[in-house]
4'-phosphopantetheinyl transferase family protein
Amino acid sequence: MSAAEAERLRGTRRRSDRDRFTVGAALIRLVVAGYLGGSPRAVEVDRSCDRCGLQHGRPRLPAAPELRTSLSHSGERVVLAVARHAEVGVDVEILTMSKDPGTLARRILSEAELDDWTRLPHHDRRPALKTYWTRKEALVKATGEGLRTPLSAITVSPPSAPAALIAWPGHPGVVGRTGMRALRGGEGYVAHLAVVGLPRPEVVERDAGPLLARGGWTP
């Protein structure tokens, strides 16, 4: 890890969060080294925030600006996405939910989405809400907007349909240039990918377990 990452790790209280952060830091170096050649230790990762400059922003690669990355973790899942010459965002979420789904739905769903969501049977609402959530989170990570944009301002396809960005007022150029894909989150998880600049991205998914065990990877 870089000195900034190590400092951030020391300031993380929960062991589970420290473990996920450590795995994410290892994954990005192992995968990027596979693209560039050389040692994972030599991969420089810059996490400078666009707004404040602190090291909690999305990972960037000063030595390989053509490669864009995004990391997400939840529960026992850590997901890394890498794209070349296109902005990428990824989000994974465990399906359990402690908050009242109705309150969360009114906060993150657009009017059209909320109308569709309230028509669902009650047992389908929680997983549907996580589907909406991960699609939108992946999108705002890809654009760099983060939570500066209310998720309720974005409309995506319903959970019963393939992932797609439908509308985002004030961002007309993003709608036609963005591709979305559902990822294999595994039982009890939902995950989505968004790529701005590739409306129909070719997505290859790999299990990170063997990669971490081998300590190396070749595309």
Summary: The first strand starts at residue 67 and ends at 74.
